[in-house]
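Final report, Chapter 2: Outcomes

The project's central promise was a pipeline that accepts a single protein chain and returns its three-dimensional structure in a standardized token representation, suitable for archiving and comparison. That pipeline is now operational. To close this chapter, we reproduce one record exactly as it appears in the project archive, with the input sequence first and the structure output second.
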Amino acid sequence: MNKYVKNLDRIEFVVTFACTGCCKHCSQGGHENQKEYIDAAKAASIVHDIASKYSITSVMSFGGEPLLFPETVYAIHKAALEMGIPKRQLITNGFFSKDSEKIKTVARNLAQCGINDICLSVDAFHQETIPAGPVKEFATEIKKLGICIHSHPAWVASREHDNPYNRRTTGILEEFQSIGITPSDGNIIIPAGNAIKYLGSYYDLDKEYTSPYKENPEDIHAICISPDGSAGPINGNINNTNILEILERYTPPR
């Protein structure tokens, strides 16, 4: 086994960069003309292949808004359930439809495919363009089904920093807490993409900000599959090379 990936224990899927929001803090910038998404069957095969060789403990799907392509989300987590992967997590803004029946159907399907943890992206940024009503409806349905769900906010500069965005986020979290959706610690926004454009004044842009999710290139614990098939940070593409080959061939950049 490749010594640089022998401790691999997590698979992430960016299902799509298409999104129902247009957030000022988004590291991807705009989402115009984002139509690519990961094929459901391909995603499931990736989970099966990797989990057959590595001790995977966590699978996550996110976006963009992953529930714009729910069949891919279902396939990822059904495969993870089949392979005995204990943590099966979805990050969503909760807004993929205003139709109550569709919201209920998607919620039921998420329960059936084995998702057991949902991070609901709600804060000053998401609710600037995303209506709270359908998101609360989705969250309520998920909670009824017994899936662990919590709000997952984005904070400017720090959780304690006093600024209009953080104050608004605090109010929104209280709204969701009133329907039983408790907040996680969330994450601190890294100035990139839209965040530099709209939130740069809250940061020292001469300083280098490092993502807390950055991998050690000589000891990879997590890989992330993007909509175009690229597998980061191991430098390969699942559309033209088997994922296990990509993992075996990986060498750290010099």
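Archive annotation: Strands lie at 10-16, 58-63, 87-92, 117-120, 148-151, 154-155, 187-188, 222-225, 230-232, 236-237.
This record, like all others produced under the grant, will remain available to the consortium after the project formally closes.
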